[in-house]
């Protein structure tokens, strides 16, 4: 009955009138927890945040060199890239964005389109809901500025042929967005509250200024300033070096996928003070100590530590832990050989075991627990390691790194050097409200 | 008999006289290939290349801030590091270096001690043999400037408690170096020729200037200059953009452990030309195409590609491919469940299977073949991947990356962007001559 009134309102009423089940009064329905119908959802104001296409990136990259479009085309061709291919993806994305925007406007919804570089807290405050128009990366960016669990975020995959879109609506809604809007309005969907991670940081000389890794405008100087071990301060306060360790500080970020801790692969600090950091791809192992659920501290050496959510268990964490059929087959073969057993290892059987193993790496985004994974653990005469992977409510990490970072969702980094301690946990208020639509 | 004459020469003859089995006339004995005695080896001139200790690094790091030793001690303490601990390792290293140097001098050998920053081709030319005094990292550096297969390189682990020293002599020789020298002189050892990797690079806009990732003096500007896509040149030659792809160029490096190809984890090129790169730890997947032994090209997306030697099969490649007991147990458990079988999975059994699997990842340094490993392959709707790991004589890689590098032994990087093609292979003349001493 409520649905019908809603439909009537839409068809016959003033389209700018928010339906009576306005955003603020919506009943919340946890994923799978109840079969009660979800109240309809029709926001007045929607911000659409769009990704930067590769075509745009290449254009900007060479813009300062004053290249014409023809020059750009030839340059890309020389590199074996296809100018027309990039332009095609660019146009597909833009067409899909236009489709979304027009669909919203037809429903009388105020729309504001912002490029990822223009997206900020003000946009979030203005909007009743935020749509991410891009891929999973754009969703992560959008989520990163939504700290309240009441503001819905919806992802639309604007290039399904090129983008996975795990965090986006099913691909069919990309070109059928009005259908999605209709279902939202009717309440024919579920809310999915994705648990996110919060971070406390403590230790001396830590400047908890986040560095936005995607910020194209950030110069190296600004990066250094943000991340510098306060050696100048230390020098000035040399009489006060007995200063105590700072209190744990709750960082102003929430991670939707994962926290990754590891050496930042930078070369060493210059001996001469005014030469900037030269940062290179250098494989240096990460040293740290880890304590799970207030357990004993354990020293580890590895390629880094990933601590992910249920959402993130399908992302980088999945790739860290996933096994290839080749490895599974070899393990089973050796197992049979060692046991003197004779089990037929058909390709179908191998695939079944592999899929089963890999599926066990994924868990529900709504679960309030973390999955920690040690990436490429180094076990030798000097170091040992217990579990490579496990669930937890809380993970503490003490850095023993030379020049490490804590990276949130691959997009924001915090300095995390020798002596710093990070506490990784989850809290109910950190959830992100997203939409689950039937395919 | 030859041995006795040798001993006599040493004990009674002029110590500066090279023994009759001088370096140049040594018979070569491949590892395990022959039981004929190795001719003795006594070089006239030995260069000893020493590592930088962490203590020295921390000192240099803060030197510009004008900190006193006392300040440094307090600063380290605040970070939870132990100043006295670092100093202790520093002294242990230096004592061991002194032990090596004195042992050499006692044999009448000319010794030249060089820090890693001072080590160059001139030192290699001067020396009859080069000793690496440090850990495996120092050995890689030493090897990187020895391109001839006739110049012996010997590694001594100067901090066995902290360093693995896979590439070094057995640890007991660290404090008993005269014993090692004696055995060398008597021929009581084997030569181990470690096969190395050579690299050809082709593609437009490639500047094959290697960047030394450990070079503390290299400013970011120099790095950019070395690695810049020649956009300025392109602009000036805009009338000549039809320039053909450059010929494959053999790079002046030989890899002892591995080549690693991957996105350099840098943020994007600045829109404004005079703002330097800001490079951060950003997990971006690497896109490339791979062709094994002239097979068909296959597109891949992963965390990077490792191509290693037998020597390197115990290094990074090993950690990429190694399985934890936890994973092996899970695979076997699922396998048993899927097959409806009931095999007891005791901890000892799991450990046996795990060790057996991991041992199969390692092969002899003398073998002239490569092992390629795809690190964290991304397999989804968009990308697929065949073998995650395999042997080959030749591997070709075409970059589809935005900002990638090819890293040689974790120490030297080459730009490897969209369109560039690397050919990775081995040649008999690229071997490194090292020493195999009984424990």
UniProtKB/TrEMBL annotation, chains A, B:
> Keyword Disulfide bond, does the record have it?
no
**Family affiliation:** Belongs to the NAD kinase family.
Give compartment(s).
Mitochondrion
Q: Which GO MF term does the entry hold, naming one?
A: NAD+ kinase activity
Q: What is the purpose of this protein?
A: Mitochondrial NAD(+) kinase that phosphorylates NAD(+) to yield NADP(+). Can use both ATP or inorganic polyphosphate as the phosphoryl donor.
Instruction: Identify one Gene Ontology CC term for this UniProt entry.
Output: mitochondrion
Q: Please give the SUPFAM superfamilies that the UniProt record associates with this protein.
A: NAD kinase/diacylglycerol kinase-like
> What is this protein called in UniProt?
NAD kinase 2, mitochondrial
Give the main localization category.
mitochondrion
Biological process terms from the Gene Ontology for this record are: NAD+ metabolic process; NADP+ biosynthetic process
Write down the chemical reaction(s) this protein catalyses: NAD(+) + ATP = ADP + NADP(+) + H(+)
**InterPro entries on file:** ATP-NAD_kinase_N (IPR017438), ATP-NAD_kinase_PpnK-typ_C (IPR017437), NAD/diacylglycerol_kinase_sf (IPR016064), NADK (IPR002504), NADK2_mit (IPR012355)
User: What are the record keywords, sorted?
Assistant: ATP-binding, Kinase, Mitochondrion, NAD, NADP, Nucleotide-binding, Transferase
This enzyme's EC code(s): 2.7.1.23
Note the Pfam families from the entry.
NAD_kinase
Q: Which residues cross the membrane?
A: none
What domain of life? Eukaryota
Q: What does the record note on quaternary structure?
A: Homodimer.
